[in-house]
Design brief:
Elements: H1 3-22, E1 30-35, E2 41-45, H2 53-65, E3 68-70, E4 76-83, E5 111-121, E6 127-137, H3 144-152
Parallel strand pairs: 2-3, 2-4
Antiparallel strand pairs: 1-6, 4-5, 5-6
Length: 161
């Protein structure tokens, strides 16, 4: 076996070993939630508007399942936010924390997609529920529905002791 044959064999073997890594899925979205979604009442979207269509459908379906109905004079104000900043942006902060919006720019060219939902009682101005989800992504596909699904999925219950 010549030196060229050995090199080609080694290169082919290495590429076969690395092939499964090329199709790895992105890590699961990171979700943070506080409060509880009200069990009944009416809602309206705030000035932030509704999220992208696929995510908005998931949100309105979840609100309906919990007994909330759309109204022009709502009891609850629902505000949403969806962002996907350019890959090379970040925030300069003196004391970096784990907050997703304070992360340094990604060097790999990926992006961080974020979605959040806030439910506020109109009469008192009290935020009764907030959830957000973020995920590192690549490409230009709309991932708002995936993030909304993750944000609205209740966390697993701790086992009873």
């Amino acid at each position: 076996m010549t030196m060229v044959d050995r090199f080609l064999t080694l290169a082919a073997t290495a590429s076969l070993l690395l092939l499964p890594l090329g199709g790895c899925a992105a890590p699961a979205p990171v979700v943070r939630s506080s409060g509880t979604v009200p069990g009944e009442g009416s809602y309206g979207f705030g000035d932030s508007g509704a999220p992208p269509a696929a995510a908005a459908k998931l949100l309105t379906d979840q609100l309906a399942q919990r007994g909330l109905t759309p109204s022009d004079s709502p009891r609850y104000l629902v505000q949403t936010e969806y962002s996907r900043p350019p890959a090379k942006t970040g925030t300069l902060v003196a004391d970096r924390t784990d907050a997703a919006w304070q992360r340094a720019p990604l060097k790999s060219g990926g992006q961080v997609s974020r979605i959040s939902v806030s439910v506020t009682e109109v009469a008192t101005g009290t935020e009764v529920y907030r959830t957000s989800a973020w995920q590192r992504t690549r490409g230009k596909a709309d991932d708002s529905a995936l993030l909304m699904q993750a944000a609205l999925t209740p966390p697993p219950q701790a086992p009873a002791r």
